[in-house]
């Protein structure tokens, strides 16, 4: 279907016979889209004035009551229809004999969201997911398009000339794919993967997607997709999206991206901006070693940073005030640190703890069973996963966040989850001269 959408002159999206209010809704949508495009050219300081000016107009009950039935259409929540959005030319919504361009619809939704705020987004959940996917993909498409435009050689040989765009693209790819998969429904969970492959081939024609196989177990499809992401990007960005919840499918290895699962509480926010983690700098995965990994395992190169030495109790969910969290865990820290530790070193460790505590997005994610811990080198770390004293903290080539691994007697390491540990986040541990081929090989299960 992807090829059909791409070759068509126009894509008509049939929403059904429609509602009596669709005519007025489509008319308002064109006007609202025009206002939204106008707003985009205004200085940021005028955002408040724009919102106050149009809020009385958009907050009328008739606006939401007319728009909600349209947003509730099943088309907005089906994963296969994403291809119509992103591969079709001039995608156009059609309700009965009425037509509205998808871009006008999206901009009208954004206009209403700006002027009404979060209650509007909550009232139209399917549209919120679809518009979010559209916004993410617009950025994603522009990154991919910029790289493709300037690339005459195969992808890997021409990366260096456009490293900033390529870097952003690789970091955005796992997030975009998971958002698109999780926010949309599929009758068969395998379609959470298969429906997205034609979209990827459009963005980057060099991608060689693996064939769809509906006889394969879902866990196998998700593992293949995770491996596909690594082989195409040479990065381990999907680790940042892993979250300790019950997987949506049985038999999923702990390091595999649960494409259909909820990762809204993952530590990805740290990579995206809250603390800007780049633990392994601009390094890449050792692809020959990775591709030799047997099923269920990851063979990677990395360097051990330290071991988990001391673990705090779980962070209470009811502890909302930053001052309460800081007081409780600074007290825990002073009780834990050896009395013989020099004052400057104690101050450093305390400062590391405060850096984490002062980040609200970070602390919000730690209130679901998260813990602080100290490494053998007295660095402060945080984890959402079940960790134990003696677990190893490892920075893998191609990764943004360090990993906690538990070594088995046979030399293999159990994947416990991504972690945040101070002293690694800005690549200071990794350095600039580290050669990937000289790093230790790790067998992760």
TrEMBL record:
It comes from the Eukaryota. InterPro entries: HET, HetReg/Transcr_Mod. It holds the Pfam family HET. It comes from Immersiella caudata. Residues 1-84 form the Heterokaryon incompatibility domain. This is Heterokaryon incompatibility domain-containing protein. Coiled coil: none annotated.
């Amino acid at each position: 279907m992807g090829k059909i959408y791409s070759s068509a002159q126009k894509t008509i999206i049939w929403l059904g016979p429609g509602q009596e209010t669709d005519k007025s809704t489509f008319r308002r949508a064109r006007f609202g889209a025009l206002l939204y495009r106008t707003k985009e050219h205004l200085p940021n300081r005028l955002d408040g004035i724009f919102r106050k000016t149009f809020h009385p107009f958009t907050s009328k009950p008739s606006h939401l009551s007319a728009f909600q039935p349209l947003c509730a259409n099943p088309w907005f929540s089906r994963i296969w229809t994403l291809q119509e959005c992103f591969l079709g030319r001039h995608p156009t919504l059609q309700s009965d004999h009425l037509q509205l361009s998808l871009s006008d619809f999206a901009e009208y939704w954004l206009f209403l969201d700006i002027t009404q705020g979060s209650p509007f987004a909550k009232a139209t959940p399917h549209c919120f997911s679809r518009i979010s996917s559209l916004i993410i993909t617009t950025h994603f498409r522009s990154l991919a398009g910029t790289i493709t435009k300037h690339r005459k050689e195969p992808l890997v040989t021409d990366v260096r000339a456009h490293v900033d765009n390529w870097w952003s693209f690789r970091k955005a790819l796992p997030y975009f794919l998971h958002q698109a998969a999780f926010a949309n429904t599929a009758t068969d969970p395998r379609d959470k993967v298969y429906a997205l492959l034609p979209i990827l081939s459009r963005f980057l024609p060099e991608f060689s997607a693996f064939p769809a196989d509906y006889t394969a177990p879902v866990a196998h499809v998700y593992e293949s997709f995770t491996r596909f992401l690594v082989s195409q990007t040479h990065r381990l960005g999907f680790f940042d999206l892993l979250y300790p919840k019950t997987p949506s499918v049985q038999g999923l290895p702990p390091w595999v991206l649960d494409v259909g699962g909820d990762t809204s509480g993952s530590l990805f926010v740290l990579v995206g901006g809250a603390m800007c983690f780049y633990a392994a700098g601009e390094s890449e995965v050792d692809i020959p070693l990775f591709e030799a990994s047997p099923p269920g395992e990851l063979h990677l190169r990395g360097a051990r940073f330290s071991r988990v030495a001391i673990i705090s109790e779980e962070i209470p969910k009811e502890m909302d005030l930053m001052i309460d969290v800081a007081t409780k865990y600074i007290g825990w820290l002073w009780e834990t640190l050896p009395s013989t530790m020099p004052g400057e070193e104690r101050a450093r460790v305390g400062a590391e703890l405060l850096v984490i505590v002062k980040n609200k997005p970070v602390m919000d994610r730690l209130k679901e069973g998260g813990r602080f811990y100290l490494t053998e080198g007295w660095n402060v770390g945080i984890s959402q996963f079940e960790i134990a004293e003696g677990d190893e903290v490892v920075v893998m080539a191609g990764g943004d966040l360090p990993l906690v691994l538990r070594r088995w007697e046979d030399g293999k390491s159990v994947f416990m989850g991504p972690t945040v540990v101070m002293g690694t986040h800005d690549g200071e541990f990794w350095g600039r001269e580290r050669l990937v081929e000289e790093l230790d090989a790790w067998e992760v299960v």
